[in-house]
Design brief:
The complex is a heterotrimer. Chain A is an alpha/beta fold. Chain A is 34% helix and 23% strand. By secondary structure, chain C is mainly alpha-helical. Chain C has one domain: ABC transporter involved in vitamin B12 uptake, BtuC (Orthogonal Bundle), CATH 1.10.3470. Chain C has 14 helices and three strands. Classes of the chains: A alpha/beta, B mainly alpha, C mainly alpha.
């Protein structure tokens, strides 16, 4: 077995013409790819290019419709994750495949041989996590862990299976820059041990930093196989997107003294065991500026959004002011009537109802602000379908929303196009204040740049814009000032020009601003 | 048998069908499936158990028939909700409506016939212990089985790898599928187990509790069993405690009626139902408790991508 | 062989319309098999069950009598189910509505006035709504599971009615029978046409269906119901309150169930008895789903389910099968409706097991069934 591995030594895994179709969509279309032992191989591509589909086939979660997978030279059929693990393929999922209600050790046990006792798994996990610098308590409940810790579980779980090929799906999207650095060290250790890594990402600088080779996917097809170190970020981006992506042009902070959103000492207890408590948040967004809030997922971003939008009310009226009016105790409808617009993180089931048409989704956010246009019949509140359809068409036009059919269900649109619609729905009202959570999460590059440009333009036209984002590139593209949220606390906003990635990274990891030592109270609930 | 002993004994008897049905449903819900058809499976178990006992002359054959009837009936629910991904709430209701209708039809020829009673199995030595002897060790097969099932389910869920997998599926079926844990197969087995348990509960009604066939004789016990699972916050031992509490309420009201305290019998008969509501209210007031213990994928549809 | 589902990007319009009919067809086939297994001629049996009751004037009247409460209750339930509130205690709200509506004709039985009937109807709707408010408030305020609480209240309502007609409201001139006095003429809901049994309950039902249809289809309230039913989070984003919707949906359906209750008592029975409903409140759940939660579809579905009640009686008399068969038909129908609804949201593929070892073979051994 060893002999055959070395004789075909330059190919641990080879894919030929691998194809997967969903309905009429060719998610993977004749993909060729090979991975050598001891290399870190990047799989690059935009959202929707087919990366996830491809790795799910490698891990036996999806069944290919055509093509061949060769493992160490011989064709294999991987029909389940169990078989993938038997072969020596391990996977770290992007959206973690963890169980909140179970302990770390139980989570790990679920992907291991049944004969090993939980106690032994806990021991092995502990020693392995120490060996690779990934500290982990085997008996903690996953629900209590941070995103970074959760990823460690995934990695330790994968390593315990002693894989020869490890697949990592967008592993750094949830990490601080410093955490990402530590991950890269672990990956290089693994490469040193002769393991192969398939590294999926759309972050080009880190691919250039750690990967030996790269395969680029676009619309389900391989468009290039290259050495990322010989490419520039721009050339890699061009391969991924298949053309130029408009760069966002921002103008210097035109912020006036007029504050349109003021938050003072906002604290909110968590509403469920899985939510974050907001603590003493202060911020101001002025007319003409974009304030961005960075942070690792799960540090209170959605709780802050809910508090600002009025979906959850604050304890007292004056902790939140919109255009000077105290709205802490007012609901989302009243805040909209003051000229505020909101774009939540989740598109399906929050910003839009998936199984409703675009025109219905138009009504969702604007039935009060546009009551004069959208409703008739006095207290009967009869919907004026014609006027609503016209408004929806206007948004579709303004944001270049690509859709099939006249008025499709939200579920029939791609992520990027639905997001353009949801953002456009608010822009169409010319809001004086726009609060956006993760504006381009899971959105293709073209749509993302269009949305970012629209946010910048809105601020330039004299509105105040608050962007909550995990994506540092995005933040630097749009922000005039930047603050960082960590464990439900917000750092003091600083001008974007004076902020470095390193500094933001430290704040994202919870470092106290300006090296000041945390007060006793802070230290107590820093956990 | 003294009065106190007799009362304890009848509390146990009244609680046993609740324990049986609820422990089955607990496993079903732990796997992330909400089967509201307990009442229907139970009544099917009752009528088929009665028929089996009548036709064979053996109550044990009756018990087996009840078990199989409940399991077979649950398979209908499984096919609709697991294979065809139909709405679990509506399908559970359909199962109950169908069960009440079908049992009424099957049972028509048995109305008024004297039943076959499941014999008492005394545990030698222990059944003569004063007071608790009869109550705990002078019972029938189904009583012992109900206790064994609670112990067995507690052990299975928290001490075995298969139980861990079942809990994992109930917590997050998407992740379980991604890890290669067979979601649908496990859920089918859980639903079958739940059906078999409900069938046994029905068998207890028509072979032990009131050994005869009366239409609609389950009288809402399937629903009370569902409430018990919530009350127990999906934990087997609490479920046992809850079931005996309910047994005590329903026996208490019967004795109170017999003693002729001036309250109309109808109001006394309302007590078990009102107690169920009260218990649900009390347990739901602690939102955190429910949120933490409730299987996160309960009643959510699951379609594996392939 | 394995059944696999593939999610449609949008729900299928075709199957939204076809699925109730497919379900009806499958129920008839299942019925034929059932009759065959009982040793009856299936064609003859189905004829007596589903056609014969439509051939006589009196039985058409009877159909209207049975359909009225089913449609009234189901229209209310459609609002509940659409907003994702599982009120399954309509049977109890029906009973309590009937009780509340009967206060005037039983307690003030000598009062004859044109006001009597309207007051009865209003108090019945208030009674049904008030009874539905219990599970609604418990859910909205304390997050108590409404399925179980509303169902438990059915048993309580039935016991309460039983106590009333055996106790305080028993007819003093009724030879100890457990029933109230017969309502006097001004408390009797008039017939639609003279000499027939069909009463104004059916008119109420059709008006309620039309108004509810308009609300669901054309008003912001209907939009709110649909949004909250599909996603509470999106509803909150729109500024709608899920808690207030719980109350609205339960009060609405409780009021209609109460109206159905008093219509049945005052139009069809003429007095209160221990049992006033052959399970209308539960059968209406089937009506609601067969009508695809659309008030106009519910009118048609209510007539179909009413027919199963009549057919059961007819088949018992003419071919000697148990009238329990009707319940069986109703349960089976709901099963088939739910199964067929899968076709609206998914494509169904039957996949035969691939030849061993070539799971990645290029050929796609699939047969699409639609």
């Amino acid at each position: 077995m060893q002999a055959s591995a070395t004789s075909e030594g330059d190919r641990l895994l080879a894919l030929q013409e691998l194809t997967k179709t969903f309905g009429s969509l060719r998610a993977c279309d004749g993909v060729d790819l090979d991975i050598r032992p001891g290399e870190i191989h990047a799989l690059l591509g935009e959202n929707g290019a087919g990366k996830s589909t491809l790795v799910k086939m490698l891990f036996g979660v999806l069944a290919p419709d055509g093509g061949e997978i060769r493992w160490k030279g011989s064709p294999v059929a991987i029909t389940s994750p169990f078989e993938a693990r038997q072969l020596g393929i391990g996977m770290v999922f992007q959206h973690f495949s963890l169980f909140e209600a179970l302990t770390v050790a139980e989570n790990i046990a679920l992907s291991l041989d049944e004969t090993v006792s939980i106690a032994r798994i806990a021991d092995e996990a502990r020693s392995l996590s120490q060996a690779y610098g990934l500290p982990l308590d085997p008996f903690a409940h996953v629900a209590d862990l941070s995103v970074g810790e959760r990823q460690r579980i995934e990695i330790v779980r994968t390593l315990l299976q002693k894989p020869e090929l490890i697949i990592l799906d967008e592993p750094t999207s949830v990490l601080t820059p410093q955490e990402a650095d530590r991950l890269f060290e672990t990956l290089e250790t693994l490469r040193g041990e002769g393991k192969s890594i398939l590294y999926i990402s759309h972050r080009l600088d880190e691919v250039r930093r750690i990967c030996d080779r790269a395969t680029v996917l676009r619309h389900g097809k391989v468009v290039a196989a290259c050495d990322p170190r010989a490419e520039t970020v721009a050339s890699l981006a061009g391969l991924m997107v298949g053309g130029e992506v408009a760069t966002v042009t921002n103008s210097p902070n035109a912020g006036t003294d007029q504050a349109l959103l003021e938050v003072a000492h906002l604290s909110l207890p968590s509403r469920s065991p899985f939510a974050v408590t907001l603590r003493d948040i202060d911020l101001t967004v002025r007319r003409g500026e974009v304030l961005a809030i960075a942070g690792v997922a799960g540090n209170g971003q959605s709780e802050l959004f809910d508090a600002l939008s009025g979906e959850v009310l604050a304890g007292t009226p004056d902790v939140i002011r919109i255009g000077g009016a105290a709205v802490g105790q007012k609901g989302i409808t009243q805040r909209r009537l003051l000229g505020a617009g909101f774009v939540p993180e989740e598109r399906h089931g929050h910003g839009a109802v998936s199984q409703m048409r675009l025109s219905d989704n138009m009504v969702l956010a604007r039935h009060r602000s546009d009551a004069g246009t959208f409703l008739a019949g006095g207290i009967l509140k009869v919907l004026k379908r014609g006027a609503i359809a016209k408004a929806a068409a206007r948004v579709v036009d303004a944001m270049d929303v690509r859709k099939s059919g006249d008025d499709p269900h939200a579920s029939a649109l791609s992520g990027g196009n639905l997001q353009k619609f949801i953002v456009g729905r608010e822009l169409d009202r010319k809001p004086v204040l726009l609060v956006v959570n993760q504006p381009t999460w899971g959105v293709d590059a073209g749509a993302a740049s269009r949305i970012r440009q629209a946010l910048v333009d809105l601020a330039r036209s004299g509105s105040a814009v608050l962007v909550i984002s995990q994506d540092l590139d995005e933040i630097f593209e749009v922000a005039h000032r930047i603050a960082v949220i960590h464990h439900g606390r917000l750092s003091a906003p600083e001008p974007a020009a004076s902020m470095s990635r390193e500094r933001i990274g430290l704040l994202m990891g919870g470092a106290a601003p300006d090296g000041a030592s945390p007060g006793p109270g802070e230290a107590a609930d820093a956990h | 048998m003294g009065l106190f002993e007799a009362i304890l004994f009848s509390v146990m008897t009244a609680a046993t069908p609740l324990v049986l049905a609820a422990i089955g449903e607990l496993v079903v819900e732990r796997s992330g499936v909400l089967n509201l058809g307990v009442e229907g499976m139970m009544i099917m178990g009752a009528v088929v158990a009665f028929a089996g006992a009548q036709l064979s002359g053996s109550a044990f054959v009756g018990v087996l028939c009840g078990l199989l009837a409940g399991a077979a009936f649950s398979l209908l629910f499984g096919f609709l909700t697991l294979t065809l991904v139909a709405n679990q709430v509506a399908t559970g209701l359909a199962l109950t409506i169908l069960g009440l209708g079908l049992s009424g039809m099957i049972g028509e020829r048995f109305i008024g016939l004297p039943g076959v009673r499941l014999p008492v199995l005394n545990v030698p030595g222990l059944s003569d212990v004063p007071i608790v002897g009869r109550v705990l060790f002078g019972q029938d097969l189904l009583f012992y089985l109900s206790i064994a099932l609670v112990v067995g389910v507690a052990w299975f869920l928290f001490r075995t790898r298969a139980g861990l997998k079942l809990r994992a599926i109930g917590d997050n079926h998407g992740s379980a599928h991604a890890l290669g844990v067979p979601v649908i197969r496990t859920r089918y087995l859980a639903v079958l187990f739940g059906g078999a348990c409900a069938g046994l509960a029905g068998a207890h009604l028509s072979l032990v509790y009131t050994p005869q066939w009366v239409e609609n004789m389950s009288a809402g016990r399937g629903w009370i069993a569902l409430a018990l699972v919530v009350f127990a916050s999906w934990r087997p031992w609490r479920l046992l405690a809850g079931a005996y509490l309910f047994g005590a309420v329903s026996i208490g009201q019967l004795h109170a009626q017999a003693l002729g305290i001036g309250i109309p019998s109808q109001f006394m008969s309302m007590l078990p139902y009102l107690a169920t509501i009260l218990v649900l209210v009390l347990i739901s007031m602690d939102r955190r408790l429910t949120l933490i213990n409730r299987p996160a994928s309960l009643a959510q549809p699951f379609v594996p991508e392939r | 062989m394995r059944i696999e589902l593939e999610k449609r990007p949008e729900r299928s319009k075709l199957f939204s319309i076809l699925s109730p009919f497919i379900a009806l067809g499958l129920t008839l086939i299942a019925g034929a098999i059932l009759f065959l297994s009982l040793g009856k001629n299936p064609v003859e049996a189905l004829f007596f069950f589903f056609i014969d009751p439509l051939l006589y004037g009196w039985s058409l009247h009877e159909l209207a009598v049975k359909a009225a409460p089913l449609i009234l209750i189901a229209v209310g339930l459609s609002v509940c189910f659409r907003s994702n509130n599982w009120n399954i205690g309509a049977e109890g709200q029906f009973v309590m509505g009937a009780v509340a509506g009967s206060v005037i004709p039983v307690v003030f039985h000598e009062w004859q006035s044109l006001l009597v009937l309207p007051l009865m109807m209003i108090s019945a709707m208030l009674g049904g709504a008030a009874y539905a408010a219990i599970p609604a408030l418990l859910k909205a305020r304390l997050n108590t599971n409404e399925i179980l609480s509303s169902l438990m209240l059915v048993y309580v309502a039935q016991l309460f009615l039983d106590w009333l007609v055996r106790g305080p409201w028993r007819n003093p001139e009724g030879f100890n029978f457990p029933e109230t006095r017969n309502f006097n003429a001004s408390a009797i809901l008039p017939e639609i046409v003279d000499g027939g049994r069909a009463h104004f309950g059916l008119v109420f039902a059709i008006i309620a269906a039309l108004l509810t249809w308009f609300m669901m289809r054309h008003t912001l309230k209907g939009f709110e119901i649909a949004v909250l039913g599909q996603s509470q989070r999106a509803g909150r984003f729109a500024g709608f309150s899920a808690a207030r919707m719980v109350i609205f949906a339960f009060l609405f359906s409780g009021a209609l169930a109460g109206l159905a209750g008093i219509s049945e008592v005052s139009g069809a029975i003429g007095q209160l008895r221990p049992v006033i409903s052959p399970g209308y409140g539960f059968t209406a759940i089937i009506v609601a789903f067969l009508g695809r939660l659309n008030p106009l579809g519910i009118v048609a579905a209510g007539l179909v389910l009413a027919l199963t009640y009549l057919g059961g009686e007819a088949a018992q008399i003419s071919i000697g099968v148990s009238d329990k068969v009707a319940r069986l038909f109703q349960g089976a129908l709901l099963f088939f409706v739910l199964a067929c609804d899968t076709l609206i949201h998914y494509r169904i593929r039957i996949r035969r097991p691939a030849a061993a070892g070539s799971a990645i073979a290029d050929a796609r051994p699939q047969a699409e069934t639609n």
